[in-house]
Amino acid sequence: MPQLGILFAAILLIRTISLVPATSQRGNFSGAHFQIFIRQFGTVPFIILLISEIFIKRQVFSCISLITPYSSLRLCLGSHILFIQYSQKMRKSFRRKSDIAGKCKTGCISDFKFAPHFSLIAIAIWRAEVKMCRVILLAALSTVVSAGWAMAGTVNVTPSSMKGWSFSTFDSSYSLNPSAGTTGMVSGPATPPVGTGSAHLATPDGGDTAMIGTEALNGLKLSDITSLSYSTYMTSNNGSQFPYIQIAFNLNDGTGTIDNITFEPPYQTPTTGNPTLANEGPTAINTWQTWNAEDGGWWDGVSNNAGTGVKSLAYYAALYPDATITDLPVTTGSFLGLEFEVGDTSPGDGYTYDGNVDNVTIGIDKVNTTYNFDPDVAVPLPASAWSGLVLLGGLGLFGAVKQLRRRMA
To answer: Among the listed ranges 63-77, 164-178, 235-249, 322-336, which one has the minimum average pLDDT value?
Structure first.
């Protein structure tokens, strides 16, 4: 989020203008200071401080202390954090300049030149920054979610971070052809089962193929797959086809044969598919539906047993115990080991195939990973954070003018 970098730079500039006194002294922070900080602000801001200390070399910045009638404010510009150390003794002794200098510890400003009202400015800035830190933290967390770390087992796949997935389109001769279809991450349609978007797959003709696939399963056996499901949304088709799954594998029988099996949603009811397998219900246009391919019916590219002859994934795992998942070479390019596709039916059939895929769950040895397909979404800085920046700017300029007047006096 570049906006946050700009915001922090602006805050740093404002502090430098308004808070740096005529004389300052570098100070070191002890364990006691950290304990005071945790007591005043809590654990989460303290973690932010530690991260800041790791990635920003504090020693290159000057740490200054401001003495006010209310508190001793220790500001480390490198950490973007205000330290406040309350002192009951100081509260009672702030009557004369000599008392202030006598009560100051290492790093305090001995030449106290600020009028009492300046302390109100410093405290107002601190309060605004504490509020802004919370807002910025929430914005950062939302970025973390968009990066795919929202919850264990869920991976967000976006155009800027495809996580091993890729789009491709093939024409009727099985040659890579960018004009053979439309693909990409889009918002919607409607309300996707996970996230806010999905992978869009569309072809202008039944002979073309649009797909999104991955080689993440290449080298594994069919028996290694312990869970496989996905969600589909179909806008237009030939009256039957929905986004389907294809897995290619090498039989490893010495012949070099590469076979493939296909899971299609229309073949998942007792009447349209194998009645001994799970009944997953009929397909529906313009509706998100989730399909359990692990328990559903598949047809083999060699035997072409589509329809009532479909078999379970476990059946093929037992039939081809030595087979390993691999890419399927075609005229130009290859179909990847695991693909989600539309099209590849009958060239010139006059139909357009337009569908979406999301919520892909793949289990390997009973460890499930859900892939959420989403478009890139910029995370805007919340309006409250910009309001805080405006407040800081006003206070900073006010403090700078006051300080300049004192120096000129």
So the answer is: 63-77
* pLDDT over threshold 60, residue 343: yes
Residue 166 is inside which H or E element, if any? strand 165-170
Kindly tell me if the per-residue pLDDT of 13 is higher than 80: no
The amino acid occupying position 370 is T
Residue 119 predicted with pLDDT over 50: no
Q: If we measure between CA atoms, which residue out of 389, 402, 382 comes closest to residue 125?
A: 389
Q: What angle do the packed helices 2-19 and 383-408 form, to 10 degrees?
A: 20
**Token output for 200:** 């869009």
- Amino acid 300 reads D
Query: What's the predicted TM-score (pTM) here?
Result: 0.61
- CB distance 196 to 377 below 8 Å: yes
Q: Are 50 and 38 in contact (CB under 8 A)?
A: no
State the Cα–Cα distance between residues 115 and 405, nearest whole angstrom: 12
* pLDDT at residue 116 in the model: 40
Q: Is the pLDDT confidence value at 53 over 90?
A: no
Q: Are 225 and 266 in contact (CB under 8 A)?
A: no
3-state secondary structure of 370: strand
pLDDT of residue 377: 83
- Say whether pLDDT at 390 is over 70: no
Distance CA 105, CA 92 (A): 16
Mean pLDDT for the chain?
A: 73
- C-beta of residue 97 within 8 angstroms of C-beta of residue 43: no
Using CB atoms within 10 A of its CB, is residue 191 exposed (0-12), middle (13-18) or buried (19+)? exposed
Listed in sequence order, the residues at least 6 apart from 278 whose beta carbon sits closer than 8 Å to its beta carbon are 268, 292, 295, 296
Q: Which helix (H) or strand (E) holds 92?
A: helix 88-93
- The token duo for 263 is 């899971």
Distances (CA, A) of 86 to 33, 36, 39, 52: 11, 9, 11, 23
Distance CA 218, CA 323 (A): 11
Considering only residues 382 and 102, tell me which one the structure prediction assigns the higher pLDDT: 382
More confident site: 107 or 387: 387
**Full DSSP string of 199-215:** EEEEESSTT-EEEEEE-
Question: How long, in residues, is the chain?
Answer: 409
What would the DSSP string read from start to end of 278-333?
-------TTS-EEEETTTS-EEETTT---GGG-B-HHHHHHHSTT-EE--EE-SBS
